[in-house]
Amino acid sequence: MGNTGVAVQGGIENALVNPATFRGGKFQLYMEGIAKGSVTEMNRYYPFEEEEEEGGTLRLDPVDRQKFETGIPAGMIGFGFSAADYLSLGASISIPQTIRYNVLGRMLPTGAFVDRFPSMNNYQTTFTMTGHIDERLNVGLNVIYNYYTFNDVRLIAPHFDRVSFNQGVFRFQPGILYSTNRISVGASYKFAAEEEIGVGNQEPYYQVYDTHFPAVLETGLAYNYSDDVTIALAFEYEQTSNQYEGFDDRLKLKLGIEKRFDDYQIRGGLVSIPGIYEGAFAIPEDDDTPEGDFIFDPLPYDYGVVGKTDQLLITGGFTYFMRDVDFNLAFAKDVLQNFDLFQIVLSVNIKLGEIIERGAR
């Protein structure tokens, strides 16, 4: 439905967008898997040359059109329930970001080649509390813990060294939802965070980054056109200029529609995602980077040119309702073709509370 759930009441999966939209009911278990195609890199690099101390020139010719891949097919697992008429509780573990660069090749002085697969994953744990003030007003809070992992291999002549970091950061996301029979209005705000991340296995680190995680404000409305048709519109503002002054802030526009039948429903949507930067870049050296042999091998390149990254996603989905299980299938496809984005999401919502209650009778 175009990811317009900020004003649409739903299950624990919807709480990631707006915690106020979550209503637990009897105990439910939600599981999600994601299949993503590889994405062609939008950056392009220039050949690298430097004079070697023993004479001669080292030249690195990058391979064009490298591929990014997702290394983990899992999307989310979560549960939720109503602790009281006025309170719903839930928790989930999700992987909103998982990427592997496939592949960087490095020729050694022996003439052999070494392949590298740098990877980064973002594991998110979310605890959700939703208060149902009355039939129309709901407020909620997500307590979020993002755990970032990065793994790579660097060449520090004449040997290799594994470069990695594991860093966690807490964030908070309050939300509100007001609903009538026809219209629902919702909003959520994810607070910004800042963390120093040292790239390396031990001090002194190769590089120390003062990392900013931008604030995100999302608001939207849903209109029940009829008893079985809902139209939703949402805006998401991300303060990405807080990460780097040369970035633009990002404003996403989302539009979705849902049609319900007796035992299934279909969804469609559009998501407009503008890029935040286009042009040349160069990552500056850090003052804390130690001298001598403790240097970065010049791969991946710390400079290049970023092309257009605007996206226009077409989304679609189908849900089939059974007595104890809901099956969901959805897809997203970028039609601007700045880079090839396509993914399929398969999820299942198991109504464990009803199954256990029925078995206990």
Description of the molecule:
By secondary structure, the chain is mainly β. The chain is 2% helix and 60% strand. The protein is built from one helix and 25 strands. The chain has one helix spanning 352-359, and strands at residues 28-36, 39-40, 43-44, 48-51, 57-60, 67-69, 74-84, 87-102, 104-107, 113-116, 119-132, 137-156, 159-179, 183-190, 193-199, 207-213, 216-226, 229-238, 250-260, 264-273, 279-282, 303-306, 311-321, 325-334, 342-350. Strands 1-7-8-11-12-13-14-17-18-19-20-23-24-25 form a 14-stranded antiparallel β-barrel. Strand 4 (48-51) and strand 5 form a beta hairpin. The longest helix has 8 residues, at 352-359. The chain is globular. The protein starts with 27 loop residues before the first strand and ends with a helix.
Features:
single chain; 361 residues; mainly beta; 14-stranded antiparallel β-barrel; three-stranded antiparallel beta sheet; 1 helix; 25 strands
List the helices and strands and how they pair.
Layout: E1 28-36, E2 39-40, E3 43-44, E4 48-51, E5 57-60, E6 67-69, E7 74-84, E8 87-102, E9 104-107, E10 113-116, E11 119-132, E12 137-156, E13 159-179, E14 183-190, E15 193-199, E16 207-213, E17 216-226, E18 229-238, E19 250-260, E20 264-273, E21 279-282, E22 303-306, E23 311-321, E24 325-334, E25 342-350, H1 352-359
Antiparallel strand pairs: 1-7, 1-25, 2-6, 3-22, 4-5, 6-8, 7-8, 8-11, 9-10, 11-12, 12-13, 13-14, 14-17, 15-16, 17-18, 18-19, 19-20, 20-23, 21-22, 23-24, 24-25
